Amino acid sequence: MAESLKYKTKVGLLWSFFNQFANYGMQFVIGIFMARLLSPSDYGLTALPAVLFSIAGVFIEGHFGDALVRKTEVKELDLSTAFLYSQIVGIFFYIIIFFASPFLADYYEAPVLSPMIRVTSLPFLYGALNVPMTVILRRRLDFKTPFKVSVVCRIVSGIVGISLAFTGFGVWALALSSLASSILELILTWIFVRWVPKTGWSKDSFSYLWNYGNKMIASVLIDRVYTSISPAFIMKYYSAAALGVYNRAFAYASLPSMQLTSTIQTVSFPVLSKMKDDHENLKYEYRRMLRLSAFVVFPLMTILCVLSRPLIVTMITAKWEPCVPYLQILCLSLMWFPINALNLNLLRAKGRSDLFLRLELIKKALGVVILILTLPKGLIVFCWGSVLSSILSIVVNTYYTNKLMNYGFLRQMLDVLPMFLLSLVMGLIIYFMNSFIPSLWLKIICGGIVGLSFYVLIAKLFRFPELDDAIYMVKLKK
User: Fold this and answer.
1) Could you tell me if 367 and 314 are in contact, meaning their C-beta atoms sit under 8 angstroms apart?
2) Could you report the per-residue pLDDT of 8-17, keeping only the tens digit for each?
3) What angle do CA 57, 341, 205 make, to 5 degrees?
4) CA nearest 135: which of 21, 6, 271, 270?
5) Is 272 part of a structural domain of the chain?
6) Are residues 357 and 399 in the same domain?
7) Phi/psi at 438 (nearest 5 deg)?
8) Which of 144, 201, 310, 369 has a beta carbon 3.0–4.6 Å from 440's, enabling a disulfide?
9) Tens digit of pLDDT for each residue in 433-470?
10) Residues 243, 392 within the same domain
């Protein structure tokens, strides 16, 4: 049983990684073409609707998916109840956003926002069907199907977006490509899963789902509102172009950190949920996941930080060079994202959504204070504030991890310290070497090859167990 779960975890991680790599690899490539064709203002204008949809999505999904994944036995009535809830809430939010969009457009003095918000929020009307189908796939630890779906959707979305941008649709190229992707995702997922609601509403089922989901809704809502404050203020008090530059920097900094961590989170939640009552094995597997995440993410974030300028200028042209200092600082902030995310994932697997909510309240209170103090002083200072916020979040997030399984802040930092120091030395070597290389392309190629080779070689010499874990994960044999 343990070996079977271990193998399923490995296969799940592989397919989830392939999914993230293909998805965001294509997004990165497509984004290069889009950024060359569009302006920072275009990206800034689409950032605000994305914020609104992110907040509304918290209520629509309700985190019922997590509740169903960790439930021992899921009945058809549970799936139908989750679907009906999401459908009703989705329609409700679409109506609100539809009538509120003209006022938002007037407030930001951007008339195009009104029709764009109405069109890009259409997934609220049909996205509810994805909730039960995603639950079915996650409970099976089937991450191969989402990989197939996301690859096709990303290709089609990229073709639509680049074609529209090339023919002069401007900001609408971003909006319509996203809409096309959401429609195609629903169709393809249904073809693979073929789920339709067969029963009605269950009061008992809803009570179970809501008792778990309401605290998660509150927790995630606090996080989404907090992260939405910055774009709203940047666009209002700086400019749409400034928001577009900042969002590009944040998007690139997120690629290696959030997306690789998302891969591990996606698989680790159902896996940790299955062993939630086996304290010893839970702690062992959790520590391995934490160290493996740091082993992979730390060097990638360091390389991105050191090579940010040649990457930005060569990939999306010099018009985006203002985002370089933001990208460098945000790399230092987001490299700690795996530590924060996995600590919270443990609470989710344990079913402690109450503790999850409590931590979010504390962290966001600290974050708001940092935001108020830093944002008026400029975006550079604001980015440094995010670094401080990330470190403080680790201190807060590890409090209950220490209570639940005696694995607190100091022990976690000691576990990831070797990877951090090795990444730091690697970054200094790349920086020193590139100071003698004039060509931007050679900086990227030589810096990446030399940096990663040095990192892997030292990890091999000092016998980092995380290197063996990483190699095991990519082997195809059982």
Assistant:
1) no
2) 555 655 555 5
3) 50
4) 270
5) yes
6) yes
7) -80, -35
8) 310
9) 999 998 999 999 999 999 999 999 999 999 898 888 77
10) yes
